[in-house]
Design goal:
The chain has 376 residues and is an alpha/beta fold. 65% of the residues lie in helices and 6% in strands.
Length: 376
């Protein structure tokens, strides 16, 4: 099962591959299943409706062959009579037609489900290519179809010969019967022969259905490279995904920077880490981290804070604890309530003093940090 490029189709079809094939109308189908279903439905319909159908057809023919004297000399009477009897015959046979059409639609759905594809109806020029046509004829699928045809011929032939051999006496007795009895007996013999031959096709169907399912799956098998390419098309190339992530990160940082001017204080490491805190006693249970970052992002947070007169304070242990223990837009953990409260109280006191300059970095005294929240 070697493929182009030296790769083999060893991978199971992906959901996308299965969906694409269904949209193109490429689903598992068995003509043998369809044929057998229609024939068996016809046989069952004849068994259930045979008497009423025969009686109806007999009535139609009787009425159609009975002409009144006035109709013989009417040039339009035969046309009207033919139209009326044709409608009667159609109504009589309509139950049989409905059952046959229903089986013709339902049988394919039993194997591959319902599928309607506009792409499958589109005209394809390559179907007219005689070279490709010969290739399909002499391909291994053509050999399989030939073997199926031979199998059907042998099975149907064997069943037919067996049926005729076992009922030869019944056929010979027809010559000794009256016309009505002979016609009734012929109907029975034809029905049971039809049912026997139709049932024989079940053997072919039992072989063809698993083969069609296997062959359909085989055609959809993928090489490892096809799976990788499909994954790239579905998920995107790594370079594009990285660019998208970078863009999302920059947008998140931009939104974060917009929150820095609203902060009460920015605590720093002093150079590697920066965390902006905001507290509103009317809407918050505890202070909240509105911005945080390291290195270049931390430097930008400090610059934005100074440009907007937000206090910048140096508290390395507290800054590291806040950075590692609290996510963005989350309230600080209970273990840091006391330390942050001391920082905020200290900042509020400084604001009330005369000569306070928010642009200056504040050196905070050591504040208590629980052991489980300390980070080096």
């Amino acid at each position: 099962m070697a493929e182009q490029g030296g790769q083999e189709r060893t991978e199971q079809p992906t959901p996308k591959r299965l969906n694409d094939s269904r949209q193109k109308g490429q689903i598992a189908r068995s003509r043998e299943l369809n044929t057998t279903a229609v024939l068996l439905t016809g046989a069952a319909a004849m068994l259930l409706l045979g008497d009423s159908l025969m009686q109806g057809i007999s009535d139609v023919m009787t009425r159609g062959l009975m002409l009144e004297r006035s109709q013989v000399f009417d040039t339009t009477a035969m046309l009207r009579l033919l139209e009326a009897r044709g409608i009667d015959a159609l109504l009589t046979l309509s139950p049989l037609f409905v059952l046959l059409v229903a089986s013709a639609f339902l049988a394919p759905m039993a194997l591959g489900g319902f599928s309607f594809s506009v792409q499958a109806l589109a005209f394809k020029w390559d179907k007219l290519d005689p070279i490709k046509g010969l290739g399909r004829v002499f391909a291994w699928r053509g050999l399989v179809e030939l073997l199926k045809a031979l199998a059907k011929f042998l099975i149907i032939g064997a069943v037919t010969v067996t049926y005729l051999w076992t009922h030869i006496g019944d056929f010979l007795q027809l010559g000794n019967m009256g016309i009505e009895d002979a016609l009734s007996r012929v109907g029975d013999l034809l029905f049971w022969s039809f049912l026997a031959i139709s049932s024989a096709l079940i053997l072919v169907t039992l072989v063809d259905v698993p083969f069609q399912l296997w062959d359909h799956k085989r055609q959809l098998m993928m090489t490892l490279q096809e799976v990788k390419d499909e994954h790239k098309e579905t998920e995107g190339h790594p370079e594009v995904k990285q660019q998208v992530r970078n863009l999302q990160q920059r947008m998140a940082e931009r939104r974060m920077m917009q929150e820095v001017p609203k902060a009460d204080v920015v605590v720093t490491n002093p150079s590697h880490y920066a965390v902006a805190l905001k507290y509103d006693q009317n809407s918050m249970v505890a202070p909240r981290v509105v911005a945080k970052g390291v290195d270049l992002v931390a430097a930008e947070i400090r610059n934005v804070a100074r440009d907007n007169n937000v206090a910048v304070a140096t508290a390395p242990p507290l800054t590291r604890a806040l950075f590692y223990s609290t996510e963005l837009n989350e309230e600080i953990p209970a273990g840091l309530y006391l330390a942050v409260a001391q920082v905020l109280a200290y900042i509020y006191q400084l604001r009330e003093r005369s000569g306070y300059k928010p642009s200056e970095t504040i050196e905070l005294p050591d504040v208590p940090i629980p052991d489980d929240l300390q980070h080096d």
